[in-house]
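Hi everyone,

Forwarding the result from last night's run.
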Amino acid sequence: NFSPADLLRSLIAECCGGSGTFNALSAATGACTSSQNIHKRINKKATKLLASVLGSALGGDDSLNSSIFNRVIVEDCSHFQAPESLVEQLPSYGNQHGKTAGVKLHFAYDLLSGSTVCADLIKARITDQSLAEKLVSNELKAGDLLIRDKGFLSVSALVEIQFSHAFYLSRLPLSLKPMDENGMPLDLVAMLKNAIGDVVECVATLGHQTGLPTRLIAVRVPEQIARQRERDCRKRLGQSRGKLPAKQLVYCRWELVVTNVPFAMMEAEDLAALYRCRWRIELAFKALKSNYFSSRMAKHETNKHHWFALLLARLIAFLPILRLGQPGSTSGSMDPPPSLLKSAKLWFS
């Protein structure tokens, strides 16, 4: 009397608002099977079943399109905490309390249609930059725009994006020093010191050997965010008072992004607004982890298959929320979408 559908329903119910223990999973089936049977059923085959369900559920509505880009893809990673008992199987970065366990979700989706481009569970210690060329090589198509945070920035990946006749819009990290058209270091402090407007742009090159030409766009951040960044910067530098280094102040007060979208195709102000759409994937991760899902599921010592089953079930349950949060998902127009966080709170409560 216990079917794969019963297992899926109980896992989704528990990952949304329950404890996820074997006893709770048994109760979620209406007590049609015991906790011992649940423990026996959640194995490698069960997680493969859940992964296949998730794979078939991924995708979206391609009815929406853009006259400028084929797809507008946002990409990022998020960490999920695993029980300490899995520290040898799923090692993560340690903290002041010792070794930790977990995995990362490497996720990318199209803002226009809601189609999922990439959803991979990977080792927690894999860096974002090491993934820079993975999606570009496997998924990116001509005419796509890829929006990324600074952790993914790799000059070789940008070259590959351009070679694929696609576009990038990426935040510039402090470690990568842009140069002018003559290959000399670009003085960002002087360029932005007396800037009047909220958006400043120039032509720059990236990489000493590559010399990749790019558009560098500086967007002034709101005063409240700038002050918070300065406080965070002081904390990192161990500096309680005094003036911060000029270059650090630039990165606190300005958002620096690079792109190969031509001037004639889109103006700097529009690109700045478009980059802010990257925040949607951050909201998606926050919604996915709502109700303390990650820490709650990590409290109980269990086996790897049980924990992965709960995580995969959570992803399956989250997909309707992600689709609901797409522009035009409720009316067929580009109306403001519902709040992902509020929708998730209702959905998972």
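The longest helix spans residues 304-324.

Cheers,
N.
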